[in-house]
Structure formats: structure tokens, C-alpha cells
Design brief:
The chain is of the alpha+beta class. Helix content is 46%, strand content 19%.
Length: 595
């Protein structure tokens, strides 16, 4: 894929939270950063006058920008940390040391200690997090310690040592913060039941704990211990507002490759996320041009082999949206819920964003390719014999039959050609008859094009259902154009597409670009027609107001409007000013009529 200019890359970035990566001309990573809004943050590097020389040098070296879209700012912070630790980019100073985000550890012991840590040690202990601040960790641990009695000492509380009386209870026991398992005052079963509740709280499952706290609060209140009840209530509120889940890091998801695929008629986009020790360490999206009618499963299977070889991945487990044939030693997981499903959804989201950006970039760099793709898509979707390079759309406008008009808008290569728009006053129809009006305007339009030997459209779009479409077809029959120009109707209610002599409408996908073009045509025709109709009604109303004055006819009314621009100004004009335009006699009549 040819190098896309930085200016174009910036213009197509999403306005979402994420992590961006700057690369130099040799595709070496220069810098990793996070953003609440990727487009604004990354663009700021190229629009600001930077105070520091290091930043100015960095910006000069940037040749390409990659990014990973994530759900929240917190996720962006964590992913940024992971990628900096992995790649150690030259221009990252902050977070380049070994500082990591804090975790909560439930130690693998007979009477487990629970404490904060920045290091993950593989000794069977459980780790929860990471958290974006130590304050959050300490608040949660303070809450837990305020509710549950846990030991804080680091003694080896084996059954043998406790039975031999090696340890004595400390001050924490006498303060009520510990139940004294060191002297056998608390059983391992009772202690572990507490740890089970704490584990649920940390995971975000507060059901049993909240139920216990609420019952305790009621007991305290019934015993008139309102201060204690208030303390428990505050703890309940903290638990109810607490959220811990992070998509970006989960220590249980270890050494996994995640693949997802998004495809359209011509291309497929495969996103790859590489997870190591529960952290995302790489994100890459590949674009594949379809040559035949390959299925998503075929393309995904080929891409897995190519991407894994390219990045030398040794992961034995793959998360995929569906089963595909892979090497026998690889394990495939198709996630249905939980953190694994969130990781797969994150991959799919990045594939979708990449596809959108490519479309925008192509539209800027190679507009012909973009147009050709849309035209080919419309030809296929609407079952046309040729690409609809020239499309015309008709719409009628009238209110209770007054001032009936019609509009014809013209699109060339999928874009409005406003100089070719036309208005029509309905001449042969009396009253509100949309069908007859459509028949008249279609006949007039193509009779003139034929007479002037002007090019005819490849597609006519009628705003309306079967009735309006049938009326338009009558005119094409009279002119001998039936079958020479494709014609469809679009009904507003469910966006049904009607074809001649076919009672069953076509329903295009709501996200289809073909449908969007047709909707744009319909909306533009409606706007153009309504504007003309309003102007005509307004002019008619003004003229009738002036012409209702005795002795003032259409010609005089037009002269007055030409001079004063509006009825309001005519009303406010002096007799002298009116006399200059229409003479003394008529000026007096106009002045008296308004005063």
C-alpha cells in the first residue's frame, strides 16, 4: 500500500479515545501517546509551535501514524503503558522507566493477605486490576478492611506452627482489626469465606456483600446507632459506584492472538491484536483486495497464517469470531461473553475504524477509485445493466393543492450537479394529484431532453411508491423510453425500493452506500422542491395582499416590490416615496389601505 501523506492521515483519524504511535521513514516506532480524542490530540502536534526542541525534531521525523481505538480514557492509559514497556520508543520519557500500574494481590497462603503491589509474581497468587491510580486501590482496600477483619502480619500461619503456639496476637487483634488466626481464634474456613466475599467485591460482584451491609445498616438503625449505620451506608454507596473492569489488561488472558474481519464487496479488513501476559502489545490491520468471491472464513484463514508469520507469533491460542481451519496444534476460542468477548469486540471495532479511514483517504487521494467503487456497487445492488453515472430524481410539492410544483435534481458520478437542477410549475393538473403531476413533469423533462438531443440519465429515481412510479412509466411509454432508462421508486416509510412490474420491493441494508446515495437524491429533490414551493406561495401571498387594494394590479404590485423589496417596507413608506413609484392617486390608496 503506498504511503499516505500525513495531512490525509490526520484528516481521517477518529474522534475516539485511543493510543497513537508515530513511526519514522524506516517504520521504526518513535513515540507512543494516549488521547481522549485521537484526531484532536494527534493533529495538535502538527499545528502548534512547540516550545521544546525535542518535540519539534520528533514531528519532523514522523512519516506514518498508527493507532488503536479503545472504549475509555482509562483503557487508553493502560494500553499506552503496555506499549511503552514493550517497545521503549526513543522519544518517550514519561513512563519509560519500569513503573507499572498498581494491582490488588490476594496472596497464595493458608490465611491470604490482601495488599497493593506493582509487581506480578507467578506463585499462584491472584491479581486484580490494573488500576489507574494508587488512590483507587487504597480506597478499595480501606473499604474492605473496614468491613472484614484481615491479618496484616507476614507470619507463616501453618497449622503446625499455630498448634505449637509459636505466635501471639498483636495490637491489631485487640483493636478488633484481626480475629487472631495466629493463635487459632479464627478458623481457615471462616477466614476463606471472608476472602471469597472480598474477591467478589474486587471483581465487581457486590450482591452478597451489599445484602449483608444493608441488613447490618438496618440493625444499626433499629438499635439507634445512627453513626455506625451512616458509615455502612457510605460503604454501600462506594460499592455501588465502584467499577473495576478493564478491557485492555486481564492477567488470566495470557499469550493469545485475536483476529477479526470486516468485509465489503471488494475488500476485507483483518485486525490482529497480540496479547502477552494479559496485555495488548501489538495491533495491526491488514487490507486485502478480493479477487474472486472468497468467503470471510477463507480470507481470515489465509490472513492468520500470513500475520502470524510476519510478526513471528508463537501463541498457541486464537480468539476468532467464528471457526476456521488452522494448524492442529492451535486452540481456537470463539468468545460468547466476558472479557474474551470484549477483547474480540475491540479488535472488530479497530477493523471497522480502519475501513472507514481507508474510504476517507481514498476519497481524498484517489476520488475516481472511490466513485468507481460506488458506481459498481449501485449497479450490482439495483440490478442495473450499466453503472448509473447520471441519475435524476423527481419530487412533487403542494399543500392542499395550492401552488403545485415539482423538482428534478441531477447527480453525476454520485455527486450533485446543481447547475442542472430544474423547477417545474404544474400546468395541466388541477387540485392535489401527485400521480398526474409526476406524469406531467417526467413527460416534460424527457420530451425536452430528446428535442434538444441532450444525454439521458442511466437511472431515474421517483420519490414515492408504486403509484408515482406507475405514473412516471406512462410518460416514458409515450416517449418510447421504456426499457431504455432504468427507473425505480423509493417509499419513505421503510425505504422500500420499487421496480417496474415487480410487486415485491427491494430492501437495501441501512448502511449500504447505494441506499445512502438514493436517500441523498431524494432528500435533495425534496429540499429543492420545497424551497421553490415556499417562495412561490410567499410571492403569491404578497401579490394577493397588494392586489386586494382597489386600483392596484399585478404590474403595480411588482413595481412596488421591486422598489421596496417587501410588503413591510411598502407599509412603512411615506406618501412621497410611494408617489415616486406609482403616482399620487395610487399612492394615496395604498397608504390609506395600510393605515
Amino acid at each position: 500500500m503506498p504511503q499516505v501523506p500525513i495531512k490525509v492521515q490526520l484528516s481521517t483519524l477518529p474522534q475516539s479515545p485511543g493510543v497513537y504511535q508515530f513511526y519514522d521513514i524506516e517504520d521504526k516506532i518513535l513515540y507512543v501517546g494516549k488521547a481522549i480524542n485521537l484526531k484532536k490530540r494527534v493533529s495538535s502536534y502538527f499545528t502548534k509551535n512547540h516550545e521544546y526542541g525535542k518535540t519539534r525534531v520528533l514531528v519532523k521525523k514522523i512519516k506514518s501514524i498508527k493507532h488503536v481505538v479503545v472504549p475509555t480514557e482509562s483503557d487508553a492509559l493502560l494500553l499506552e503503558n503496555n506499549l511503552i514497556k514493550k517497545y521503549r520508543p526513543r522519544y518517550n520519557v514519561l513512563l519509560k522507566d519500569d513503573k507499572s500500574y498498581p494491582w490488588i494481590c490476594i496472596k497464595n497462603e493458608r490465611f491470604p493477605r490482601i495488599f497493593p503491589t506493582r509487581k506480578l509474581i507467578k506463585d499462584g497468587s491472584e491479581y486484580f486490576g490494573p488500576y489507574t491510580s494508587m488512590k483507587t486501590v487504597r480506597t478499595l482496600l480501606d473499604l474492605i478492611k473496614g468491613v472484614y477483619s484481615l491479618r496484616t502480619c507476614n507470619y507463616d500461619l501453618s497449622q503446625e506452627k499455630i498448634e505449637t503456639g509459636k505466635y501471639k496476637v498483636c495490637l491489631e487483634y485487640h483493636l478488633g482489626n484481626c480475629k487472631g488466626p495466629c493463635e487459632g481464634y479464627q478458623s481457615a474456613e471462616d477466614y476463606h469465606s471472608q476472602v471469597d466475599d472480598i474477591r467478589k467485591i474486587i471483581k465487581g460482584d457486590f450482591k452478597s456483600s451489599l445484602s449483608y451491609f444493608r441488613s447490618q445498616m438496618k440493625i444499626m438503625a433499629s438499635e439507634m446507632k445512627f453513626e455506625e449505620a451512616q458509615e455502612i451506608k457510605e460503604k454501600i454507596e462506594v460499592l455501588e459506584n465502584y467499577q473495576v473492569k478493564s478491557t485492555i489488561v486481564n492477567p488470566k488472558i495470557n499469550n493469545v492472538d485475536v483476529f477479526s474481519i470486516i468485509s465489503d464487496e471488494s475488500h476485507a479488513y483483518i485486525n490482529f491484536l497480540q496479547l502477552s501476559h494479559g496485555s495488548i502489545i501489538r495491533s495491526h490491520t491488514m487490507e486485502i483486495k478480493k479477487k474472486l468471491d472468497e468467503t470471510d472464513a477463507d480470507l481470515l484463514a489465509l490472513s492468520i497464517i500470513e500475520i502470524r508469520q510476519r510478526f513471528n507469533s508463537l501463541s498457541r491460542e486464537l480468539y476468532l469470531p467464528f471457526e476456521v481451519p488452522v494448524e492442529s496444534h492451535l486452540k481456537i476460542t470463539v468468545p460468547k461473553l466476558g472479557d474474551k468477548k470484549k477483547i474480540l469486540e475491540l479488535s472488530e471495532r479497530n477493523a471497522k475504524f480502519y475501513r472507514q479511514e481507508r474510504f476517507k483517504q481514498i476519497k481524498i487521494i484517489d476520488p475516481d477509485r472511490h466513485t468507481n467503487r460506488i458506481m459498481a456497487q449501485m449497479k450490482k445492488d439495483l440490478h442495473l445493466s450499466e453503472e448509473p453515472r447520471h441519475i435524476e430524481c423527481f419530487d412533487n410539492s403542494n399543500i392542499q393543492g395550492s401552488n403545485p410544483v415539482a423538482a428534478c435534481v441531477v447527480f453525476k458520478n454520485g455527486k450533485p450537479s446543481k447547475k442542472e437542477y430544474r423547477h417545474y410549475n404544474i400546468k395541466t393538473v388541477e387540485g392535489p394529484d401527485d400521480f398526474a403531476s409526476m406524469e406531467e413533469v417526467v413527460f416534460r423533462r424527457y420530451k425536452r431532453l430528446l428535442a434538444e438531443d441532450e444525454p439521458l440519465p442511466q437511472l431515474i429515481v421517483i420519490d414515492g411508491g408504486k403509484g408515482q412510479l406507475s405514473s412516471a412509466l406512462k410518460s416514458l411509454d409515450i416517449l418510447g423510453l421504456r426499457g431504455k432508462i432504468a427507473i425505480i421508486g423509493i417509499a419513505k416509510r421503510l425505504e422500500e425500493i420499487y421496480f417496474p412490474e415487480d410487486n415485491i420491493p427491494l430492501y437495501l441494508d441501512k448502511k449500504s452506500e447505494s441506499l445512502k446515495i438514493i436517500q441523498q437524491l431524494r432528500n435533495e429533490a425534496h429540499r429543492f422542491g420545497i424551497t421553490f414551493h415556499r417562495n412561490k406561495r410567499s410571492k403569491a401571498a404578497i401579490n394577493s395582499k397588494l392586489e386586494s387594494i382597489e386600483g392596484i394590479g399585478e404590474k403595480t404590485a411588482e413595481e412596488l416590490l421591486k422598489r421596496f423589496k417587501s410588503v413591510k417596507r411598502i407599509k412603512e413608506a411615506s406618501i412621497e416615496n410611494l408617489t415616486e413609484t406609482v403616482g399620487m392617486s395610487r399612492a394615496k390608496k395604498i397608504y390609506e389601505a395600510f393605515h
